[in-house]
Amino acid sequence: MTRTVAVVDYGMGNLRSVSQAVIHAAEGQGFDVAITCDPDVVRAADRVVLPGQGAMRDCMRELADSGVKEAVLEAAATKPLLGVCVGMQMLLDHSEEQDTPGLGLIPGRVQRFRLEGRLQEDGSRFKVPQMGWNRVHQARAHPVWDGIPDQSWFYFVHSFYATTALQEHSAGETDYGARFTCAVARDNIFATQFHPEKSAALGLALYRNFLHWKP
Q1: Per DSSP, what are the bridge partners of residue 195?
Q2: Are 41 and 62 in contact (CB under 8 A)?
Q3: Smallest Cα–Cα separation from 163: which of 142, 147, 184?
Q4: Mind telling me the catalytic residues?
Q5: How many C-alpha atoms does 42 have within 13 Å on its Cβ side?
């Protein structure tokens, strides 16, 4: 029996690269990939991917205006949900970016990097947004990490970072000026600040693990 993974298209961000990576990861795995803004398709899917890129307020507004927000909230309560980049930030309570409320699915907040004037170990200045590869420490064991070595490199592009209210919801951490949470997990939700779709073979492995994860 073929299962379906819905990649939510609400008009924002990194939809094409995420959907192409999910399609690649799903090859031969018994999944159809639906790129959709139809709430009924999201509700009928076996699992859901929520991408996001750009300003948090814009993403939250477009998610609501697209009519798919309630279906995403229902999915977050009932089936595996993977958030990517701003799609992770949206899961938390609040973002400093334009004083924007999130979906409130994971207790925590999103803050801006404050690294002005600070130097990295090599003497160069910290730049915001952070753009590039960083090692990810797996803060807790999780099926979505299966087969991915701890301290693996993943690709980041962001000016804001997450702080979870409860340490148990922090699934991955990295360092840029300070240690911060870059992957969150709770019940049937897993989400990453980094871009698996831009992280070569290990990023595809993460998407494939999500497809087979049974919370």
Answers
A1: 155
A2: no
A3: 184
A4: 85, 195, 197
A5: 27
Distance in angstroms (rounded) separating the CA atoms of residues 207 and 78: 19
Query: How remote is the C-alpha of 181 from its chain's centroid?
Result: 12
Give which of 26, 130, 134 is closest to 82, Cα–Cα.
Answer: 26
The residue length of the chain stands at: 215
Q: What is the pLDDT of residues 113-166, one digit of tens each?
A: 998 888 888 889 999 999 999 999 999 999 999 999 999 999 999 999 999 999
β-strand pairing of 3-8 with 106-112: unpaired
Alpha helices (H) along the chain = 15-26, 39-44, 56-65, 69-78, 86-89, 200-212
CA dist., res. 149 & res. 176, Å (int): 20
- The Cα 108–Cα 124 span in angstroms is 31
pTM of the model as a whole: 0.96
DSSP H helical ranges for 27-144: 39-44, 56-65, 69-78, 86-89
- φ and ψ of 89, to 5 deg: -60, -35
Cα Rg, the chain, nearest whole Å? 16
Omega within 30 of 0 (cis) for the link into 129: yes
pLDDT score, position 44? 96
Which tokens hold the place of 165?
Answer: 């209210």
Q: Terminus-to-terminus CA distance in the chain, angstroms?
A: 20
Neighbours of 206 (CB within 10 A): 27
Q: Which token pair is 117?
A: 């004037």
